[in-house]
TrEMBL record, chain A:
This is Vacuolar fusion protein CCZ1 homolog. InterPro entries: Ccz1, CCZ1/INTU/HSP4_longin_1, CCZ1/INTU/HSP4_longin_3, CCZ1/INTU_longin_2. Residues 349-445 form the CCZ1/INTU/HPS4 third Longin domain. One of its GO terms (biological process) is vesicle-mediated transport. Residues 10-124 form the CCZ1/INTU/HSP4 first Longin domain. Belongs to the CCZ1 family. Residues 197-309 form the CCZ1/INTU second Longin domain. Pfam families: Intu_longin_1, Intu_longin_2, Intu_longin_3. GO terms for cellular component: Mon1-Ccz1 complex.
Automatic annotation (TrEMBL), chain B:
InterPro entries: RMC1, RMC1_C, RMC1_N, WD40_repeat_dom_sf. This is Mic1 domain-containing protein. GO terms for cellular component: late endosome membrane; lysosomal membrane; Mon1-Ccz1 complex. Residues 32-149 form the Regulator of MON1-CCZ1 complex N-terminal domain. It comes from the Eukaryota.
Amino acid sequence: MTSKTEVTLEHFYIFNGTYAKKEGEAKKDLDVQIKNIGLSEAIIKFAQSFNPGQPCDYCHTHKTRQIYYQPEPNFWMVMIVGVPYIWKEKDGNKYTEYQYDEVSSSVCQALLKQAYVMFRLFMGSFDTIINEPECGSITLLKHKLEHFYSRYLMSLKLNNSDILDVFQGLQFLPLDKITFLRVQCFMNLVEAMFSQVKYTAFLYNDQVVWSGLEPEDMQVVYNYLVSTLLPAHLEKELHEGSMPRNSPSPFTTTHYGKFVTGPSSINEPSLIGKSPKVFINYSTKPVSLYLVVYRALSATICLFVDINILKDIKLECLFYSLDSFLGPQLTTLVNSVAEQCTKHVTVSSESCKYLYFNKLNLAYKSTIHPDNRRCSNVLTTPEVLRVITDIYNDTNKLKEAGEIIIKTMSDYWVVGKLSNLREFFVVIQQKSASIMEIEEDVKKLCEKELKSIFFH
Amino acid sequence: METTDQDTRDDYYLELSSDPIRFESVSCQTNVFFDDSKQQVFAVRSGGITGVLVKGPNQNLSFRMEDKGPVISIKFSPNMNILAVQHNNSSVEFINYSSITGLDNIEYSQSCKGKNATILGFVWTHGNEILFVTDYGVELFQVNSEKHNVRLLKCLSLGVNWFVFCPQSYLVLLSSGTIGNQMQTLHITPGNLHKLTKFEVEVGAAKPGKLAVYERDIALTVLYGTPCIILLRHQPGTNRSTGAASVHVYTVHKMTTIKRSHVLKLDVSGKFAINVVDNLIIVHHQTTKTSMIFDIMLPGVSDGTVMHHTSVAPVKSIKPYSLKVPGTTLSNEMYQPCQLYIELKLESLVKLITDKVLLVEFLMQRTNTKYILIHILQNFMMQLPISLMDMPIIFNKLNSVYRNYLENKIQNQMGTPLQSNTKSPNTVIENYKYKLVLDQSDVYSYILSKFPENTIEPKMIVWVLLEYIRSLTEHSIPVEHYLHELVITTLVQRKAYYQLHQLLQYHVVADSKPLACLLLSLENLYPAAHQLALDMLKRLGNAHEEIIEVLLSKGYILPALRYIRSVGMVDQISDRKFLEAAKATEDATLFYSVFKFFKQRNLYLYNATSFTKGERYQPYIQHYKYLFEGTDNTCNSDTNSNVTTISS
C-alpha cells in the first residue's frame, strides 16, 4: 500500500443543465461521466434551495474536494481533486488518513476560475462561441473545449499553487516618475503612429510598468505572459545561443528587438497567424484582437492589434514598420529603465518575509516567492502558505481594517494585516519570540516597506 | 516718394516697410547722405548758402550753413551737439549744434595726422569722440565743443584700403594688404582702440591691381547679441556666372578673437545685397530678384569647425513694390532695397517652412512671435495623432528655453551669480535671451485646455498632456497643479480609471491637498480613488485632520483611532467628534470601545476618568449608561417621576 502525497486532479467537466446531453473532459467512460455530473448537479440544486442566489462553491467529501463554478448562465464548471492520504497503523490495523488540510478550497476555486478566463481569453466566452454567426453551435463549443483543455489541464500545477493564484495579481516595477513617463509616452507614440494598435502594455523582467488594458484583462494576459509565453521564449533563445541582433553589419545602429508572437524574423515574414487572437473587454464591449508581443532586452511590449483595420495594409508591412519603429527606440528606452532598476534594488531582510496585495490595482509583491514562475522554489513551507490563504479568507470578512496573528507548530509566525483595502502578510520564523516582539518587527517592516501609502 | 501695393497675394515673406523715410529727391543741386549710426538722411542743397534737411526715424530738422564747396560726408555726433562735415580728403570740420539755436557757425576743424594721408571716412564713436580712417591708419580724436578744439587720443598705423564700421558693436573692420584680404578689426571703446585677432580671407588668383575683397562684400552686424562679420564670397577661381557664391559669417568672441563659424549656401551667383532683420541674414540676389533667409541659430551641418546653413524657406521675392520718385520710378525692377527698411512677414513665412520642428525653433528666435507660435502649435494639435511624433522635440525646445528663463529669474532674485554661469560659456546663456519663452501657463491656457470640442479623441489629449509633462519633468521644471488636474479630469472623462491609477501609483501627479480632495470626489465613479486619496494625504505628512475626517466619514472609527495613536495625536483630538460618530453607528461594542478609549485618555491627561465640561458629554454618558448599565435615559426617568408626583 502506498501513500499519496500530492493533490491530484480526478475529474474536470463542464456542463449545461439545460442541454439534454452533457459534455465532459475527463477520459473516463461515459457512464462514470454521467454519474459524476448527475451528482454534481444534484448537489448544486440541493444547495440552491438553502441559499437562493448564492450558488454552491465547494463540497468536501471524504476522499475528494469538489469545486463548482458557474462562469456563464447555466454553464457549470466542476473540478474534483483527490485529497492526499497516508497509511497509518493503529492497533495492528492499517488504515488511510486523508490530509484534508493540504487542499485549500479557495486555491482550487481560483484555479478553476483561471481555467475559465484563460479559455475565454483565447477562445471567447461560451456564449460567443455558440452564437458565432458562421458556424457557432454546441458542437463547436465542445470541440473548442476539448482542444483547449486537453492541453491546459496537462500544465495545471495543483501542487504548486497557493495564495498567489487567489490574488491573480500583477507585479509592478518600482520606477521613478521620469522613467515611467518616458515609457508611457513611448507607448502612446506607438498607439499614435499605428492606428491598428488599440491597446498596449509594457513589462520589464516580468514586471508591469504600464497597462492600457483594463485590470481584469491584464490579469489574464499577464498570467499567460509570465507563466507560459515568456518562459518558453527564453528557453528557445537559450537554445539558439547568443543574443540575436537585427543588424546586417556591426557598423549600422543595432537594436535587440524581436517578435515573440508574430514573425520570428523580419526578413522571412510569416503570417500573423502565429500571433494569438485574444478576446478582451468583457465588462464593456467585447472585442477580439491579435496579441503581438515584442521583446527587446528585458522589456516586453504587448500590442493588441485590430485586424479589421488591416485590410488594405499587408501584414508583413505592418510587422516590418513596427520592428523598425520599436527596435531602436525600445533599446534606448530599456537602457534607461535598466539604469533606474539597479537603483531600486531592495535587499529584503533575512528573517522577515512578506506578501503584499492591493485588490484595487491588483498589485502584489512577495519576498516569499523569488520569482513569479509557478515553480516549487518558495522560500517557506506549504503549511505557511496555507495559513496565509486561511488568514486571507478571514480578513476578507473584516470590513475596514484588522490584524490576525498565527503561530504554527514549527515556530513560524504568520501575521495578516488588512488596512485601506490592502493585504499585508508577514512570515517570521523565530524560536521563543513573544507576540510583542513579533508585533514590533511587523511595525518596523510596515514603516520600511509601506511608507508611501496609508496603511495603519 | 511713395510705395504702392501691386499685389496683395500673401506668399511673399518680405516687404518694404510701410513707413519709409521720405526726403527730397536727388538732383544736380541736392546731394543725399545717409548716416548708418544715427539712421539719418541728410539732403544737402548747395548753391550760395547750403540748406540741409535731416530726416531720421524720429526727427525732422533743417538748417542752413555756409557753402564751402561740395560735401563729401556729413554726420551728427551721438547726442546731436556737434555736426561733422567733410569737404576735402585731409580734414573734417566741426560746427556746434543745438536743437534750440541751431548751428553756432563757429567752425573748427581737424586734419588727419598722417602726412599725405587721405581720409577714407569718419565715424562718431562714444560721446564726442570721432574716429578718422585714412589710408595710413586710424586716428581717434576727442572733440571739445565748448573750447572748439580737438585732441588726439589714440592712433594706429596700418595701410587701409577701405573700412566698415558697426555702430552697434563699435567694431571697425579695416581692409589692408595689397589685395585687401588682410582684415584687421578694432574695437573702439571710450578713449581707446583695441586690436582683435587679424584674419585673412583666402583668395584665388586675384587680378593684378584689383582688390580681392571689396567693401560692398562685407557687412558688420550683431546677431543674437554677438558681433558678426558677414562676408560675401564669390566662388574663388571660377567664373562669376557659373560658380555659386556663399556667405561666410565670422563671429567675434569676447571682443578679442574672430572665428569663421557659419557658411551660408547661396546656390546662385551674381550680384547680392545683404540685410539683417530680426537677427536673420537676408541675402538679395539681384539677377533673379529673389531673397534668401538664413538663421545662424538654427541647426546646420557641421564640418567640424564651421556650420553650413541653407535658406530657411524657399527663395522668394520681396513683395512687389513701386516707388514713385519725381522724375523716375524706382520699382522692384531695380531690386536695390538696401536703402529702405525691410520687414518680415512672418504670417506668410510660416506657411513656407514645412518642417514643424524647424518652424517652431525659427519662431522662437524672432521677436513678437508669441501668438503666431501659439497658433502654429494649435494647428499642430489638429494634426494628431501623426504630429505626436514631433511633439517630444518641440516640447523639449520650448522647455529648455523655459528652464533657462526660470534659472535666470531665480539667479536674479538671489542676486548672486550661480556657479554654473562661470563654467558654461557665456554665449550659450546669452543665446537664451533671444528666445521666446512659452511657459506652462501659456501652453495650458492657449493650447492644452483649448482643444476644440469633438475634434480630437480624449485619448490623444492625454497623450499630448503626458508628453508635455514628461518634457517639463525632464527639464526639472515643477509641473503646475492645473496640468495635473487636467490630466485627471480628462482621464476620468474617458473612464480610463486604471490608467489614472497607474499615473498616481508612479507619482506622476504631484501630491497636494486639492488633488486629494479631487480624488475623494471621484470615489463614486472609481472606488479606488478613495484609497489613492488617503495615500496622498498620508504622504503630504501634514494632513492628519483631513485623514481623520475621511475615515470618520466612512464610519471607520477604530481605524481612525488607530491612526491617531500611530501619529501620536491622541492628546489633541476632539473626543466628542468620535463619540458622536460612534453613537451614530448604533454599534454598541464600537461605542463601548470609543467611550472607554477616551475615559482612558481622561485618566492620563487629567488624572480623572470623568469628562470635563460635563454637560456637553451628557448625551454620550447617558447613551453609555443606557447601553451597558441598564439605566434608561435619565431625562425620561426624571419626567416620569415628575409625572408620578403630580398624579399622586
